[in-house]
Design a protein that fits this description.
With 117 residues, the chain is an all-alpha fold. It is 61% helix and 0% strand. Helix 3 (56-72) crosses helix 4.
């Protein structure tokens, strides 16, 4: 079941380091740790490819929905993400909006974070 991946090409296409590893065989771990260090220290600068394509209509819809979400839930830190999930039809997020759970998520997370301190 060996899978062969051209890591150099994949790295070039993604714009980030790709290190071949095998936990089972213990292969690539030193190289992975070295690359993590190089990225963390700035010796290797990642240039990830960003997806910028999208229709103007979609961008406008996301922006408008995000603004409405922010108005309804000002404490919610990621209204754009919620807007995207709603437009994608994520049933969990739709249900959270319908039953009011979305408004309590941030408060619940804050309480949970404080309890863990």
């Amino acid at each position: 079941h060996k899978i062969e991946i051209d890591v150099r090409s994949l790295s070039r296409e993604l714009g980030i380091p790709v290190i071949a590893t095998s936990a089972r065989q213990g292969e690539g771990i030193p190289e992975l740790l070295k690359m993590i260090n190089e990225v963390a220290t700035g010796k290797f600068v990642c240039k990830p490819h960003r997806i910028t394509a999208g229709s103007k209509k979609l961008k406008k819809s996301v922006e408008e929905l995000s603004q409405k979400i922010t108005e309804l839930y000002p404490e919610l830190p990621n209204s754009r993400w919620v807007a995207l999930r709603l437009l994608e039809g994520d049933q969990r997020i739709i249900d959270a909006v319908k039953n009011g759970e979305l408004g309590t998520l941030r408060k619940q997370n804050t309480v949970a974070e404080l309890e863990n301190v």
